[in-house]
Amino acid sequence: MSHNTFGHLFRVTTWGESHGPALGCVIDGCPPGLALTPEWIQGFLDKRRPGTSRFVTQRQEADAVKILSGVFEDDRTGGPVTTGTPISLMIENTDQRSKDYSEIRDRYRPGHADFSYDAKYGVRDYRGGGRSSARETAARVAAGAVARCALGGGVTIRGAVVQIGPHAIDRAKWDWDQVGQNPFWCPDKDMAAQWEAFLDATRKAGSSAGAIVEVQASGVPAGWGAPVYGKLDAELAEAMMSINAVKGVEIGAGFAAAAFSGEQNADEMRSGNEGVRFLANNNGGVAGGISTGQDLVVRIAVKPTSSILNEVKSVTREGEDVDVRTKGRHDPCVGIRAVPVAEAMMACVLADAKLRHRGQTGR
Amino acid sequence: MSHNTFGHLFRVTTWGESHGPALGCVIDGCPPGLALTPEWIQGFLDKRRPGTSRFVTQRQEADAVKILSGVFEDDRTGGPVTTGTPISLMIENTDQRSKDYSEIRDRYRPGHADFSYDAKYGVRDYRGGGRSSARETAARVAAGAVARCALGGGVTIRGAVVQIGPHAIDRAKWDWDQVGQNPFWCPDKDMAAQWEAFLDATRKAGSSAGAIVEVQASGVPAGWGAPVYGKLDAELAEAMMSINAVKGVEIGAGFAAAAFSGEQNADEMRSGNEGVRFLANNNGGVAGGISTGQDLVVRIAVKPTSSILNEVKSVTREGEDVDVRTKGRHDPCVGIRAVPVAEAMMACVLADAKLRHRGQTGR
Amino acid sequence: MSHNTFGHLFRVTTWGESHGPALGCVIDGCPPGLALTPEWIQGFLDKRRPGTSRFVTQRQEADAVKILSGVFEDDRTGGPVTTGTPISLMIENTDQRSKDYSEIRDRYRPGHADFSYDAKYGVRDYRGGGRSSARETAARVAAGAVARCALGGGVTIRGAVVQIGPHAIDRAKWDWDQVGQNPFWCPDKDMAAQWEAFLDATRKAGSSAGAIVEVQASGVPAGWGAPVYGKLDAELAEAMMSINAVKGVEIGAGFAAAAFSGEQNADEMRSGNEGVRFLANNNGGVAGGISTGQDLVVRIAVKPTSSILNEVKSVTREGEDVDVRTKGRHDPCVGIRAVPVAEAMMACVLADAKLRHRGQTGR
Amino acid sequence: MSHNTFGHLFRVTTWGESHGPALGCVIDGCPPGLALTPEWIQGFLDKRRPGTSRFVTQRQEADAVKILSGVFEDDRTGGPVTTGTPISLMIENTDQRSKDYSEIRDRYRPGHADFSYDAKYGVRDYRGGGRSSARETAARVAAGAVARCALGGGVTIRGAVVQIGPHAIDRAKWDWDQVGQNPFWCPDKDMAAQWEAFLDATRKAGSSAGAIVEVQASGVPAGWGAPVYGKLDAELAEAMMSINAVKGVEIGAGFAAAAFSGEQNADEMRSGNEGVRFLANNNGGVAGGISTGQDLVVRIAVKPTSSILNEVKSVTREGEDVDVRTKGRHDPCVGIRAVPVAEAMMACVLADAKLRHRGQTGR
Prior knowledge:
homotetramer, 363 residues, alpha+beta, Chorismate synthase, AroC fold, five-stranded antiparallel β-sheet, 26% helix, globular
């Protein structure tokens, strides 16, 4: 992985700024012969799309994806399939309001990448955060849709928000069917109502809130991933931490495991009808960096949106003190829209792991 | 990063099994002209060495490192310096007691990589966990010592254990001078005494304990790292999660940030004598994947040692139920010896980031 | 380098098919702050553009390049500069005549990639050769223009055709000023006239001709490149051999060196005003994989265009014998248009070598 | 490929200097379950070993290889097999006569890497050329032996010398059985006798000679390799050009193709009993960067050994003119010992291509 490319055999390179003409990605190494339509990709982009509820940014973007290469009509079916050559996807930006940002041209917004980009490059597209904008994640979601094709139907990836601000769900009430029924991807019906009130208050207060997102993958066979630096959990950690605003990643029991005893933490095994049956999943589906066949379970901590209406202390590019209020159309809780992005990153990691496993072992 | 290689310009490839003749690493891309002696590397290996207290494994390994290539006498000083060519380091294994493991040849130890390695490769060196053994981390520590040379004296990396089992330190009592004074790398004198009692009890009970380790780097200039998949925090997350038994990684405020409001989380800035001065460090020294010049702060969750004397349910390779007790000489809390390993991984990530930054920007 | 990506720190990923909606590339790792306009890139594309003389394909393509990301207004100059983020370039295809190719849908053209693509992928965009078309090289030329920015003005790269069919130039008559004065990039005025007659005859005969192209780079400082698998000449060889229709690469004296004695081949040295002065350049500017400061000299053999009007024996996808004549608008000698492409590849290799050298050594 | 690592899924990292304690390589990504013994590797090393005839260096090296990791007893057979983890191979240096080199410590030998290494690194192990010595190729040959395991018995790789100095073999007399019968890997019995006289004269004259080596691989299925930068021929070119003293690479007809017409060059096809039958192999087994199923045919030009007894003009590190005669024990024609090295590089390229092809396509 190198700057703007992710993956080894299933490789995704993204490009584009928030307020440039377009953004997109190139997917190299996708297996040939897989059915792929713009509509399939669009379905995932629509889950991430801004402007769908009052709890996400009001920017209006169609986020319409175009397939520019790598797909051609299949001989037999006549339908579009991947050809094994690079798949170039493009999403044009249509609702940029660059003037919203003119006043932050010369001042660093705390918590944003403004200062660090300037320290690195000495020049940056300040409009909407440029390359550091969460808009870049649209390209990830598009790539993730292709990765799901490479994974095939046997692997199911789905995510949910499990905490907003200090309010965590009750895992005993977890209901996947609820996840699509509220604007928060919340699996706990009661908590969804509570978050609505909490986020309305947060928004009115000109503030923002953090969140914790959980992503699970079922159907991953035992054996994917590889020791010792290509560990499946290490690659998941890298993928997740590369998502904007993510500050923590844990697998299975995660940080809670630190307080466990060896017995509590052991994922005991018994023989089952279809091979080994595990009696617990504290390891979150990975041992020694290789999948065990259990569900992969990853949680990520998303910090509160840095762009807030309330005034915070900062400095200008010239080093003068200034107080900053960030106008514009921001998500009060970026963690919500991180769900389809985290799902997409898991899909990309798994597609790559599948191809590499097949390459090395022939299975 | 690809299977057994870590890094891009400063690249580390490790090899070796727990009970093979030796283990080691090849470091490619180290800048030339840096003073490097076996003694320098040995100093770091000695921090990680087994057998140094009753709280770590009693295996007796000298862990003596040999430099096989990449170092030659300097014209001017006559002392050994790096030449820019690959540095090959080797540590011979001397205290293998492979018979300890003969009985686990055909049974999977829960929480270990036994099952998943078999699922992937169909064959494995079962002695001491083979490649999945924590002995592999000796090679990382050796590589980390070289990485510190590449970083130079301006960057200081140090780590500490901040929680063992359910017992967390009091951060108000943090004293770096204490860290070398107890067998736990504990910065809180009072907690060190408490851990001693706790781990003695754990050991006697035939059990094990988890831990949380914190690593900090100071002196890292603003500008290292790069968006969007080579983010400094993403690479740190990958590096840390690749360490045996690590199940979680967080940067700065980490998971706690999920409960913060936007104001609480903002690292406000004011102009200072030497450029920008930050009023907080919730971001842990990274924004937008690029270092801010603040201290890098990373915490990792280490699960309890999987090898315990107490019986746990498992299966054999042939799929029969069996109860497993793991004899051998194991760390009651692997988190302790993870400290020099986590420091080494941070050194490797930063050395690589430094070289890549210099490559792209000339600074 | 991996499938559709070239380079390590200066990385180019190309995408697109001959008859798809567009083609392009993403350049990752370009240093920030370099002036870059579409006009600069267009100048190089125009050198490669089809339809400029009767000796190249009559396909009419504007090859107009768009910069979609990675460039923004400079604070000081107000002009567009690179920002250090990925530069996405797109060229729309406008003059596809896909029906020309309908009859080769099911038959393999000898010498083309039709058969091997099918063997690999089982599906291919047959229109104009799809991904294997020389149109892909437009993206390389665009990337090469950016690479020249990264190299700066001190490095000059230029190429020429030195042989067409059996007719080689007289090196004693080499005149760089002639190169732009004829449609063949020929440095030998007399030979240009001869080639004109030869290629007219070739074209009328429904045949095609091979060529040898030479590319030189001056101003490359001693020290770029690295042993032993990242050798500058090895990377040049890879880059050049990746160009469509290239079947051979040689550096300096190349194949002729096989017949030399050690004395003949030695590039003797004497001290000069500005350091070492070489008395010959049989090594073509590289020793031990590292540049010597002399001119880099690379020659490539380009086979005759595979698409010819004359009938050749072949088979259909179903395995039936068939005789193939390739209509369409083809270059009678693809070697001519290989000149700007080979220059571009050299620019990309050198830009990458410069950044890596700077990364490892700080110089 | 990056400095000292070659390959993507089948990755070889070599290390070591000519006069250091040892040299070796780490092979990462080798499939598990393949029988591998030191004796197998040794057989290939013995083909390359110095001191076997008066036409190669008289340095006496056993070149005994040790397997340090990655191989373990197989459950079923009890014999040693690869485990899928890194294979570390080491060859100790035993016959270094470093004093031979003390006088070249401060003077650059023309044609050698002395000057360019110094320009890059500012420090170098001058003894025997250090890292730039042809001794490094022992590690390649060892890696190639492992690559042949990964390829399996279906693929046969073999090489021969086809020209020494100005004396080329008669291809009509090509007899593979002759190749092992003379000290030149010469397939033409008559030419072998002629080379013997020529090289004796060359050696007595204190000079050296260049050569051309041809390597062929049969049994490679159609479909390996990939467009457009991972082309099989591009990777072969890179691999071959990375061998010491190689100055040119050609595939199939190579440079001769430049003089061909389109009809001459076309590898016509007819249907055969087992799929497509080619009527010629000017493409050398690759089209569009993908194997066609025909024999792969690669030729490399090896320059004369740079170390010669005759005096050549040079300079010292301090920039003073000096005349250099290189004593020591050198190959009068390094091209001879390049044969097993070139075979090894082809094996590594093909093993990597096989795994990547399997990864992307499942075949």
